[in-house]
Design goal:
The complex is a heterodimer. Chain A contains eleven helices and ten strands. Chain A is an alpha/beta fold. Chain A has one domain: 3-Layer(aba) Sandwich (Rossmann fold), CATH 3.40.50. In chain A, the strands form two sheets. In chain A, strands 6-7-8-3-9-10 form a six-stranded mixed beta sheet, sandwiched between helices. A four-stranded antiparallel beta sheet of chain A has the order 2-1-4-5. Chain A is globular, with a radius of gyration of 20 Å. By secondary structure, chain B is mostly helical. Chain B has two domains: 73 residues, no CATH class; 238 residues, MetI-like fold (Orthogonal Bundle). Helix content of chain B is 76%, strand content 0%. Chain B is globular. Chain B starts with a helix and ends with a helix. The chains are: A alpha/beta, B mainly alpha. The interface between A and B is medium-sized, with 31 and 21 residues. Bound molecules: adenosine-5'-triphosphate and magnesium ion.
Chain lengths: 289, 336
């Protein structure tokens, strides 16, 4: 099947040339969940931001293609690119406490863009928001629509953001560590909720996380990222049975829930790090960086 | 509830503030040299004449007694009689107040428009030469006080390129019989747009002089908080929803970035009102400030007192308005 999102040889650098993403290629098929794992600073978030057009100003895309629904986003003029992303993709952010506008009621934060940008009728947008809030198990959606963000708990806000992400029936959702900012007890519920919503709506999901345990629960395919380079791209079952790249294997071994349930963390061995660093350097040489 | 408590508390502190101001002004203008009575009498007046008038205005009593008498009058709405103009102070002062209010508010509007545009443009084109140019302009505007801007404007638009009026409040030929002293307001209500435009073109230069430093402050502070807000997650999220940069700045970031600026504008607006004293003089604008300078020159003690109290009242009212606006605009305070 043709992938819904296809990133081809994406190179992102700092303005003065230091590489952040090194020829990243990955595919997310329609209706599938693709995990993106790697340690902190590997560039997971930057991949999501590159797709959504929200890279920090210090970074720029040097080369590559980002195909979304059959169109290479990078060939579109900025305004059109944003419109297209708004109509076909959505983001579930990491921190629900900062991702809602504090001076606006919840209702308009979900409905306004449906009206403004997608041309929905106001009543239709409101009905849609009420339905979605109910779908993410928010009690008394009508009251919540009239609330301000600070009146709601973090878990509630993340549910709202999930509802909002699904509002326009996007074909692709990018979730960037959607549970790390939450209470451990709430984390599981939210994770389940995202998986349920994804399955019900048949959305393609790019799921960013550093937790392989989470990946094993929700993903169909995954990419392992190290220093902005994809070191392994695999289907789930195969990956957990036989990881190909030594770095992936070490990462898997370092995940307590999977190989040794007692929970002692094994660091990635230094030799493995050395090898993967050499690979990164070889890539940079070839790319002339 | 919060609003009511806030207002009651404010009325109390306002009363205390005004009392303090009254005491200070009362003492200071009586301690500085210069005899108001001597100044209003012809050169040949005898000491007996002076003493008689002193007694008539109560200046022969001790400062403390004078204050009590004055305060008693104020309680009944009587601020005394102007020595130089021989009319009730309250009437004189309230007659001039509208002119100063109109000038100050016009200046505030200009400052908010210019400063706001600069901040929005600077945010839209942040980290480019445009932002640099805006920073330099604001820095220059700030380093020169309002009365010097007044002189510059008089030179530029009064002398070199005379397109605006630089003196007075209204062209004498257009002076329709106003029933109030809110000329701008009244001419609008009476649909006399010719008069209205004439008033604005008289006010424009002095108002601009008052507005320039405030506009620069607004530009700097608002741009700073806008730029900080632009990094926040909800702004990024709005971008992914397909909104353009203009919408993101004005609708998502601005309502949250505006609060610190609002507080500062409140404080600065009281400075601006203070600035009218010299600016009105410079542009021969018949307002409270101009009258204040005459009153000081003439040592017209009752009039000075009245004007200062009115200015002080104005300042506290502005601060109250800002505090209330702050509560209204900030949902977190409103429900607290
Ligand atoms: N605004 C920025 N300016 C310069 N470099 C940046 C900026 N933002 C991120 N980076 C760099 O980009 C690299 C990738 O960052 P990214 O946020 O994608 O990591 P991540 O894999 O999401 O990590 P985490 O798990 O901590 O979220 C990091 O090395 C970081 O230093
Ligand atoms: Mg990240």
């Amino acid at each position: 099947m043709k992938p819904y999102l296809s990133i081809r040889n994406l190179c992102v650098t700092l303005k003065h040339g230091a590489p952040i993403l090194r020829s990243v290629s990955l595919d997310v098929s329609a209706g599938q969940v693709h995990g993106l794992v790697g340690e902190s600073g590997a560039g997971k978030s930057m991949i999501g931001k590159a797709v959504l057009g929200t890279l920090p100003r210090a970074l720029h895309i040097r080369s590559g293609e980002i195909w979304l629904d059959g169109v290479d986003l990078l060939t579109l003029p900025l305004q059109e690119r944003r419109k297209r992303i708004g109509a076909t993709a959505a983001l579930i952010p990491q921190d629900p406490l900062t991702a809602l506008n504090p001076s606006r009621r919840i209702g308009p934060q979900i409905t306004k863009r449906l009206v403004d940008i997608l041309g929905w009728h106001k009543n239709a947008a409101e009905d849609r928001a009420l339905d979605l809030l109910a779908e993410v198990h928010i009690p008394d959606p009508a009251r919540v629509m009239r609330s301000y963000p600070h009146e709601l708990s973090g878990g509630m806000r993340q549910r709202i953001l999930i509802a909002s992400a699904f509002a326009a029936e996007p074909k692709l959702i990018i979730a960037d560590e959607p549970t790390t900012a939450l209470d451990v007890t709430v984390q599981k519920q939210i994770l389940r909720l995202i998986a349920d919503m994804q399955a019900r709506h048949g959305t393609a999901l790019l799921f960013v996380t550093h937790d392989l345990g989470v990946v094993s629960k929700v993903c169909d395919t995954l990419s392992v990222l190290y220093a902005g380079k994809v070191v392994e791209d695999a289907r789930m079952q195969r990956f957990f049975m036989r990881p190909v790249h030594p770095y992936s294997a070490a990462l898997l071994a370092a995940t307590p829930t999977y190989t040794n349930p007692t929970g002692s963390l094994k660091p990635v061995p230094a030799t493995v790090i050395e090898d993967v660093e050499t690979e990164v350097q070889q890539h940079d040489m070839r790319a002339g960086l | 509830m919060t609003l009511l408590r806030l207002i009651l508390l404010r009325i109390l502190t306002t009363a205390i503030t005004l009392f303090g101001v009254a005491v200070i002004v009362f003492v200071v203008i009586r301690v500085v040299p210069g005899n108001p009575i001597a100044m209003m009498l012809p050169p040949g007046a005898t000491d007996a004449d002076i003493a008689r008038l002193q007694a008539q205005y109560g200046f022969d009593k001790s400062i403390f007694e004078q204050f009590i008498i004055w305060l008693g009058g104020v309680m009944q709405g009587d601020f005394g009689t102007s020595i130089s103009l021989r009319q009730p102070v309250s009437m004189l002062v309230l007659g001039r107040l509208p002119a100063t209010l109109e000038l100050s508010i016009f200046a505030l509007v200009i400052a908010v428009i210019i400063g706001g545009m600069m901040a929005l443009t600077g945010t839209r084109y942040r980290d480019t030469k445009t932002e640099g140019a805006i920073d330099v302009t604001a820095g220059m505007a700030l380093s020169v006080p309002d009365f010097l801007w007044g002189l510059v404007l008089i030179l530029l638009f009064g002398v070199l390129w005379p397109v605006f009026h630089i003196s007075g409040r209204i062209s004498p030929s257009l002076n329709i019989d106003f029933t109030t002293n809110f000329y701008v307001f009244e001419s609008l209500l009476r649909l006399r747009f010719d008069v209205w435009l004439d008033l604005l073109s008289h006010m424009f230069m002095p108002a601009l002089a008052l507005a320039i430093p405030l506009a620069a402050i607004i530009a700097q502070l608002l741009k700073q908080s806008l730029k900080e807000t632009m990094h926040l997650d909800y702004v990024t999220l709005a971008r992914t929803k397909g909104y353009g940069e203009h919408h993101v700045i004005t609708r998502e970031a601005l309502p949250n970035a505006i609060l610190p600026t609002l507080t500062l504008v409140g404080v600065q607006f009281t400075f601006l009102i203070g600035g009218t004293v010299i600016i009105e003089r410079l542009f021969s604008y018949e307002g409270l400030g101009n009258m204040a300078i005459d009153a000081v020159i003439n040592r017209d003690l009752p009039l000075i007192q009245g004007i200062v109290i009115l200015f002080a009242l104005l300042f506290t009212l502005v601060n109250l308005a800002v505090d209330m606006l702050y509560v209204v605009l900030n949902p977190r305070l409103r429900h607290a």
